[in-house]
Design goal:
512 residues; alpha+beta; five-stranded mixed sheet; five-stranded antiparallel sheet
Length: 512
């Protein structure tokens, strides 16, 4: 919100027929509030405010001339006031829950201000109260001022603790005013025709405020529309995405392109991608070749910034024709762009020279892609191993002592403690569980709270089978095979029970 001012620019009085038009926007029916007692009913008309009473059953002949008979009122049915004749909807007094409620709608009045123009937003409200005459109120709450070559100026009317004031607001996104506009006063189009800067506009299916806010601001809007440059026209309507300079002396200056590109821009129906390319060309004071334009068009189609950046990297080492031919050849093998882009990004991270076409366009893309995945995964894993080894050196320092204390072999299986932090990382990676990725286990092992041991098949001592967490008292806290599962529980658990018994006996012998 900008600086608050006392009053917006002056406007003409509201035309006489506006109030009549506003009234026509509200429902024609008013409420007829009724209360029945015996054979009679009392009805209050919300249109005229008058109350009348009458019989709702046909009287005897002798009483006909003395008592008025009215229609039988029923809740939510149509009726007519016996006093003013206004149509209405019967409402039983006892069934109307709210004391007061409103019906309202918005409409816009357009007015000529000489060379300028204003759209004025009004609301018309009908306040209904039980057994009282309806009250109608028309209030102006916003204005949009249009001046040639300038941005639309927006003013809002507010009431705060009984004090009314106007303040200037900022036009909303896309240059579209935030006011509601369900209806336009019919005289608005005649007022537009009186305004020199607007009279040649052709809003077609567009909203009047939406259209004329852009039409008045951009001197070339009419030309853009007549030339069929639909993309550019929509960008001007939205006031977003075209990067226009309304103060330029010529249309080329205003569009920020070289004059000789205007014809091609018209042929392309004002395509924004071409507009941006031509604007880049003028900004850099250069002349793009057809190949350079095609490259930029190709990059513009890649919506994600990561993909665009990768394609820019590729095009630094080859041309668009070769790139498209390679992509098409891979597509025939059911290998799509995302695989290729992923491969290129991995090559870049690994530090390969992409000017070498062996790396840039591999013959067996899928195999090379998978190789890069494994290589980078190994590299990350090795770096993490080194990081953990530096962080937890005590694991290695304790290894010989723990090996003598906890290593054991019997029958089908053997068990031994981890010799260093790198072994724990590798164990977690191979068996796909959290032992190698959580600092908790490294910390416990280093402090001696619990230890990580490796269970192996005696015939394959180097192949990970299960990981065991052993307490300092010689009790197995938990153990898991790959993916935190226990498929060999029937054979491993009994063996671990014997192992814990072995540790207890060993401890007793040492004490004795």
């Amino acid at each position: 919100m900008s600086k608050t001012l006392e009053q917006p620019p002056k406007v003409k009085p509201v035309p006489k027929d506006v109030e009549k038009y506003a009234h026509s926007l509200l429902p024609s029916h008013h409420n007829l509030y009724y209360k029945r007692f015996g054979k009679s009913a009392t009805v209050t008309c919300a249109a005229c405010g008058q109350t009348y009473t009458g019989l709702i059953e046909r009287p005897m002949e002798i009483e006909k001339s003395l008592v008025k008979v009215i229609d039988l009122p029923m809740h939510n049915t149509e009726g007519k006031c016996e006093k003013c004749g206004a149509p209405g909807i019967y409402k039983a007094e006892g069934r109307v829950k709210s004391f007061a409620y409103e019906k309202w709608t918005d409409f816009v009045v357009g007015q000529n201000l000489g060379d300028d123009f204003v759209f004025r937003a009004f609301s018309i409200k009908r306040k209904s109260r039980k057994n009282l005459k309806d009250e109608e109120e028309m209030t102006e709450y916003a204005r949009i001022y249009l001046s040639k070559g300038k941005k639309a100026m927006e003013w809002w009317h507010r009431s705060y603790y009984g004090q009314e004031y106007w303040y200037e607001g900022n036009p909303s996104w896309y240059g579209e005013c935030k006011i509601s506009r369900n209806h336009y006063w019919p005289g608005t189009l005649k007022e537009i025709e009186k305004t020199p800067m607007l009279k040649y506009g052709d809003p077609e299916r567009y909203d009047l405020i939406y259209y004329y806010s852009a039409f008045s601001r951009y001197p070339d809007f009419e030309l853009v529309q007549k030339a069929g440059m639909t993309d550019l026209m929509y960008a001007l309507l939205c006031q977003y995405g075209a990067n226009i300079n309304p103060r330029g002396k010529t249309i080329a200056d205003r569009l920020r392109v070289n004059k000789d590109r205007l014809k091609e821009l018209r042929e392309r129906k004002g395509d924004l991608t071409y507009l941006h390319i031509f604007q880049e060309e003028r900004k850099n004071k250069t002349r793009f070749t057809r190949e350079q334009i095609e490259e930029r068009l190709f990059l513009a189609k890649k919506h994600g910034p990561t993909d665009r950046k990768t394609y820019e990297l590729i095009l630094m080492h080859t041309n668009l024709h070769k790139l498209l031919a390679y992509i098409e050849s891979q597509r025939k093998k059911n290998i799509y762009e995302h695989t290729y882009l992923d491969y290129i990004r991995m090559r870049q991270r690994a530090g390969y020279d992409l000017s070498n076409e062996v790396y840039l366009f591999p013959k067996d893309l899928r195999r090379r892609h998978d190789e890069m995945v494994r290589m980078l995964e190994k590299k990350r894993n090795d770096e993490y191993k080194e990081q953990m080894e530096k962080k937890w050196p005590k694991i290695r320092e304790k290894s010989n002592k723990l090996d003598r204390k906890y290593s054991y072999k019997s029958g089908k299986y053997l068990i031994r403690p981890a010799m260093n932090a790198m072994e724990i990382v590798e164990e977690g990676r191979v068996l796909h569980h959290c032992v190698g990725s959580s600092d908790t286990y490294f910390q416990k092992h280093s402090k001696g709270t619990s230890y990580i041991l490796f269970l192996r098949n005696a015939k394959e001592p180097e192949k990970p089978l299960a990981t065991v967490e052993l307490s300092s008292k010689g009790t197995v806290l938990q153990w898991y095979e790959a993916y935190d599962k226990q498929p060999d529980r029937k054979s491993i658990q009994p063996w671990l029970n014997r192992y814990m018994k072995h540790l207890q006996e060993k401890k007793k012998k040492k004490v004795g």
